[in-house]
Amino acid sequence: MCLEMREAKVAVVGDSSSVAGFRPLGFAVFALESPAEARGVWQQLAGGEYGVVFITEPAYAEIEDLVAEVADEALPAVTVIPGAGTQGGVGEKKLARAIEKALGTTVLIREEDE
Amino acid sequence: MPALRVNPNRMELLKLRRRRQVAQRGHKLLKDKLDELMKEFLARIGESRKMRSSVERELFAAYGTFAIARAESGSASLAAALASGTPEDLLEVGERNVMSVRIPQFTLGELPAPGGYSLVTTPIVLDSALDGLASLAPRLIELAEREKAIELLAAEIERTRRRVNALEYVLIPQLDETIRDIGMKLDEAERSNLTRLMKVKEMIEAQQQ
Known about the structure:
The structure holds two protein chains of two kinds. Chain A is an alpha/beta fold. Chain A contains six helices and four strands. Chain A is about 40% helix and about 25% strand. Chain A is globular, with a radius of gyration of 15 Å. Chain B is rod-shaped.
């Protein structure tokens, strides 16, 4: 049931060594000197031009509150990706929070996985 | 549950009964919606989790290859090589309606062929690193779509559950209580009326004798 189709860009936000490789692929790359700069570019990201925003873990940690504000809207879809040299698992946690919100628990799902 | 403050008359009683009927119908509908949302939600979780962990693994591998490329060519020349490329409208964004939750759907268009860097000054692993990233891109987009769907569904489930609970534990008991109260008050009025009539009849009979 597609209502309307439109074009959108894909943004990648993070430190330059993680995200530089996406630039030749046509992604819009926001290379940050420090994670704190994420706050400055967020306005641009949430403006509606971007359908999907990939954001590395340190940058996401910086603007988590801003991202939560648009969680209810269809666009942009903010997805956390691990950056080069980060642990991973933050995206997993974001998902777990959504599950907890819906079900009231995450325990059952974990058991299913194992 | 305190009863509502309304005049205890037949008119209000009828009105409240109608309201309770509507509330119960709404409650049933919302509960069905909640069940269906839950089904959709649970169906998506497992898959999405698996996908995330495999995508993360591949992404780390891609970072690794880039690190090798950087080590071979020096970070300055690598940065120069990767500076080409302009942001393009890569996505077709559509919408799907799952239980009145509007979920975005992304279709990834063709990625531009990476290039524009000198093959002489850049190491060969850069090509494979870019290839790796390019082949990962569709799965990244799919992951984004799935996770967004899960988040939106979760928010809708939470909202719906609140409504169901409000109806089930607040509004409907309140209406029931009020209906009972009015019923009792009307019965009481009826009884007092009856005794009054009996008393009057008795008085009239006493006078006639």
